[in-house]
Write a structure and sequence with these properties.
The chain has one domain. Helix 1 runs parallel beside helix 5. It is an all-alpha fold and about 350 residues long. It has 13 helices and no strands. It starts with a helix and ends with a helix. GO terms for molecular function: phosphate transmembrane transporter activity.
């Protein structure tokens, strides 16, 4: 019975990873599609490939943070296998529901913060505030603000440097060069997306396994977790939807290839650097900041601030909304368990 429950929760975690890729596909390909460097079909295949190969060079720092940096893992493990399974199930469902809602609304919200919010909400009924790692949560909250600002800064810097480097060239030559370079920049960003986002679910799967059937083993991330999570997110990216692509690629600002290259490179470098520090940031927030930064180099009016405002509100509500959904899911799950028991 326990083994079946564990397998089910691991499957739900991989489904979340797939939805994460589906939900965040636009982050990886919006700029390269909006500049018409690649067709949508080729763009998603390109992004999915680099999502997957990040498995072989991305590390597991973010996975360890998600596994032990939000919830007090030892305290949760001590509460017993049933508590572990119920908390993680409610966490995942809270994140999944919020991701699907924001996908339907066409808002590029953060899967990272949805999962963090789900974990916070599901833990409170079981362990209270003592079961939460305050420093880890504070760090994640801080980078809700910092990651888009860093992405914006690097996006502006890349745009200014690129513009200066080619200021004596003809517009046609510049456009041709940067169409080719966008293949590199989109690969960098897709790699960073896989590095950051796939690791979140590795941490969740490790909590499930080492908190239940492998309670006598030390917490660590196995190779099969790495491969399966990157495969799931790559498949999700491959089948990603168009709703958010329209918002990211067209509604925020109009991008030329040089702008797409600058935004993707700035965003991708930011995410890879922060992943090395073990900080699970939002790829959505970061690329949005980079796109806004690139657009702002053409003047304040080049950015559609009304659209940016809608996106920011989605960022603000993500953690509390996912936490609320996970609390409700936990309550329903507990009632069902008691009724069956």
């Amino acid at each position: 019975m326990l083994l079946a429950a564990v397998v089910t929760i691991v499957a739900v975690a991989l489904i979340f990873d797939f939805i994460n890729g589906f939900h965040d596909a636009a982050n990886s390909i919006a700029t390269v599609v909006s500049t018409r460097v690649l067709s949508p079909n080729l763009a998603v295949a390109w992004a999915a490939f680099f999502n997957f190969i990040a498995a072989f060079a991305g590390g597991v720092h973010v996975a360890n943070t998600m596994g032990k940096g939000i919830i007090n893992f030892e305290m949760l493990r001590a509460a017993g296998p049933t508590a572990v399974l119920m908390v993680i199930f409610a966490s995942l469902m809270g994140a999944i529901v919020w991701n699907l809602l924001t996908w339907w609304w066409g808002l590029p919200s953060s899967s990272s913060h949805a999962l963090a919010g789900g974990m916070i909400g599901a833990t409170l009924p079981v362990l209270g505030f003592e079961g939460l790692v305050g420093s880890g949560i504070a760090r994640i909250a801080a980078f809700i603000v910092l990651s888009p600002l860093i992405g914006m800064t690097l996006g502006i810097g890349m745009m200014l440097a690129s513009t200066w480097a080619v200021h004596r060239q003809t517009p046609l030559r510049v456009d041709t060069w940067f169409r080719r370079l966008q293949l590199v920049s989109s690969a960098i960003f897709s790699f960073s997306h896989g590095t950051n986002d796939a690791q979140k679910v590795m941490g969740i799967i490790a909590v499930v396994l080492f908190g239940t059937i492998w309670r006598d083993r030390p917490f660590h991330i196995d190779w099969w977790m790495i491969i399966s999570c990157h495969a799931a997110i790559a498949l999700g990216t491959f089948f990603g939807g168009w709703r958010i692509i329209r918002t990211m690629g067209h509604s925020l600002t109009k991008l030329a290839p040089i702008g797409g290259f600058s935004a993707e490179t700035g965003g991708g470098v930011t995410i890879i650097a922060l992943a090395e520090l073990g900080i699970p940031v939002s790829t959505t927030h970061t690329i949005t900041g980079a796109i806004v930064g690139v657009g702002s180099t053409r003047g304040w009016r080049a950015v559609k601030w009304g659209t940016a405002g809608r996106i920011i509100w989605a960022w603000v509500f993500t953690i509390p909304a996912a936490a609320l959904v996970s609390v409700l899911v936990y309550g329903i799950t507990l009632a069902v368990v008691r009724l069956v028991g």
